[in-house]
TrEMBL record:
Protein name as it appears in the record: Regulator of ribonuclease activity B
Similarity comment text for this entry: Belongs to the RraB family.
GO molecular function annotations of the record: endoribonuclease inhibitor activity; enzyme binding
Cited function: Globally modulates RNA abundance by binding to RNase E (Rne) and regulating its endonucleolytic activity. Can modulate Rne action in a substrate-dependent manner by altering the composition of the degradosome.
Lineage of source species: Bacteria, Pseudomonadati, Pseudomonadota, Gammaproteobacteria, Orbales
Gene: rraB
SUPFAM superfamilies according to UniProt: Hypothetical protein VC0424 (SSF89946)
Domain Regulator of ribonuclease activity B, chain residue ranges per copy: 10-111
InterPro entries in alphabetical order: RraB (IPR016716), RraB-like_sf (IPR036701), RraB_dom (IPR009671)
Amino acid sequence: MKDQIRLAQQDTSAIIEELLEDGSDPHALYIIEHHISSQDFDKLEKVAVEAYKLGYEATDPDEDIDDAGNVVIAFDIVTESPLNAELINAQIAEIITLTTQFGVTYDGWGTYFEDGNDDNFDETELMKTLH
């Protein structure tokens, strides 16, 4: 598990650096989406419940077909956070601990470019993603 956490955390600084180089607001709060997947819906549901107990939100699950023709179910564990590698890496460690406990896959994290202009923020759109 420690190797998995270390590997997942290696990309954090690069992602943050790329966002900032592209002009993303360094002082904004970001919606951080940690991607989780499995072929077993029940396991994913248990991860979502435990993540909620830790203060995270979860998106609705989506089904997809992988290259081998298997049904894969995925959802995001979501939080709002500054673009800070230490904080995001702590989230990664906490969430990978959950995914390991329940035997599901942690597929990395992502966020969106923030220009610092809250005039375009649409809370109803956010609520469609979060529940």
